[in-house]
């Protein structure tokens, strides 16, 4: 009996590296920038999130550069994301010999076992992280898409789940989001779709990259892959695929984060928030304690605005009996006006003491709330449809000293709201389809105002109104 026991222990020790290696990978993506002096040279960053408690390790990785070359890259640094997850960074440069499209990819051995939405055995399926770059093109793409958010999250049984990686592009290119089949290395060593994969029913992604699942029902680990495509003048100029594992479980002692004042802001038909250069933005969040936890709480913002330090922001906290109120505020400058939104995420979590025991693997301490801010005039539809109403509204003359006219489309329940620089409504008008003539309210001083035209309370047009 003792011999059998010793043999079992020896077998377990021999296979331990294989077993642990299949349990530490959580999510990953590859981002890049282009050398402004050499359109064939790229600087890459591979970000890999791993489970801290695992004994598996990746001190270096082998990256296939898409041109027949494989580059060995040492890990630049590893930092704790939380008490259970680490963020590993690998940095390198590569120069291509000729212009072309190149698929840069890394293979991880292997995925976790028991993934719900993959055919078993999932721990024999490799993890493939993929990014496409276009080298030496006439229109240089200096910056690929990057993430200001974090692909580490959990969903809870019976609770609507929302998450956002908060992708951004420093060149201002339009980002398109698609949920795709995760990739793996096929038996012929090609990049291929994971066999037997299915997307959880009801899981979707919005035009802002917000991933939503209205009713997670089955506990266990899932995998999703989000393709972030950079678009310029209607053409793809590059993309990356973010591969992420996450767990559906019962909520334990995690707090809850929510955005409180959205209904007091100017909200477009797609759920985004409308603001203007010089108009202060104030987002009020609330982080509610979980009754099952007595740990102190912490919160911090994520997003392009803070990552790139586009403008000074303010973050204030106020303690309450059940948590604390968080106010995140900033005033966008004229240089922040653009046609794409700024994505903002607020993360809340308990502050745990490190005990040396980082189990359980699957626990995620965080909860998030998100806001999507447009600064300036819209250049694409605000409604959920693909097109503007057949007749575009017009407001003229603008600037104006006295009367002004609004040509309204043939839509029901039309209203015009005029706001001052602080966002306060200072004038409101009911419109009918066709021509509407109005006198300037005597109480309104000269200056810059904004207006919003709504139909059945949904914005269909925003703009600036200059009163002289």
UniProtKB/TrEMBL annotation:
InterPro entries: Secre_tail
Residues making up the signal peptide according to the UniProt record: 1-22
Keywords attached to this entry: Signal
Name of protein: Putative secreted protein (Por secretion system target)
């Amino acid at each position: 009996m003792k011999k059998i026991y010793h043999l079992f222990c020896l077998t377990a020790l021999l296979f331990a590296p294989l077993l642990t290696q299949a349990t530490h990978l959580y999510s990953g993506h590859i981002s890049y920038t282009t050398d402004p002096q050499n359109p064939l040279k790229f600087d890459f960053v591979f970000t890999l999130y791993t489970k801290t408690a695992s004994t598996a390790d990746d001190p270096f990785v082998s990256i296939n550069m898409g041109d027949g070359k494989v580059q060995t890259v040492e890990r630049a640094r590893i930092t704790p994301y939380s008490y259970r997850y680490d963020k590993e960074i690998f940095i390198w440069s590569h120069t291509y010999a000729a212009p072309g499209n190149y698929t840069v990819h890394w293979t991880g051995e292997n995925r976790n076992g028991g993934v719900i939405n993959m055919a078993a055995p999932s721990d024999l399926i490799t993890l493939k992280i993929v990014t496409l770059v276009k080298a030496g093109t006439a229109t240089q793409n200096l910056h690929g898409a990057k993430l200001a958010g974090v692909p580490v999250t959990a969903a809870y049984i019976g609770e609507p789940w929302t998450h956002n990686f908060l992708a951004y592009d420093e060149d201002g290119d339009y980002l398109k989001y698609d949920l795709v089949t995760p990739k793996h290395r096929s038996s012929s060593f090609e990049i291929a779709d994971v066999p037997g994969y299915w997307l959880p029913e009801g899981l979707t992604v919005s035009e802002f990259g917000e991933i939503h699942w209205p009713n997670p029902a089955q506990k266990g680990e899932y995998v999703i892959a989000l393709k972030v495509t950079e678009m310029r003048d209607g053409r793809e100029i590059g993309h990356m695929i973010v591969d992420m594992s996450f767990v559906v479980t019962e909520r334990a002692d995690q707090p809850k984060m929510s955005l409180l004042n959205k209904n007091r802001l100017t909200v477009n038909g797609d759920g985004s928030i409308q603001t203007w250069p010089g108009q202060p933005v104030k987002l009020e969040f609330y982080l509610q304690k979980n009754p099952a936890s007595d740990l102190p709480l912490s919160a911090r913002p994520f997003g392009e605005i803070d990552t790139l330090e586009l403008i000074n922001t303010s973050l204030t906290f106020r303690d309450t009996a059940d948590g604390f109120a968080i106010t995140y505020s900033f005033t966008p400058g004229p240089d922040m006006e653009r046609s794409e939104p700024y994505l903002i995420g607020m993360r809340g979590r308990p502050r745990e003491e490190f005990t040396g025991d980082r189990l359980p693997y699957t626990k995620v301490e965080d909860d998030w709330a998100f806001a999507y801010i447009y600064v300036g005039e819209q250049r694409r539809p605000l409604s959920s449809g693909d097109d503007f109403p057949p007749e575009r509204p017009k407001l003229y003359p603008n600037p104006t000293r006295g009367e002004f006219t609004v040509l309204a489309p043939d839509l029901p329940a039309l209203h015009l709201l005029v706001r001052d620089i602080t966002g306060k409504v200072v004038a409101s008008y009911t419109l009918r389809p066709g021509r509407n003539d109005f006198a300037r309210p005597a109480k309104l001083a000269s200056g810059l105002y904004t207006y919003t035209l709504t139909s059945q309370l949904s914005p269909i047009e925003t703009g600036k109104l200059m009163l002289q």
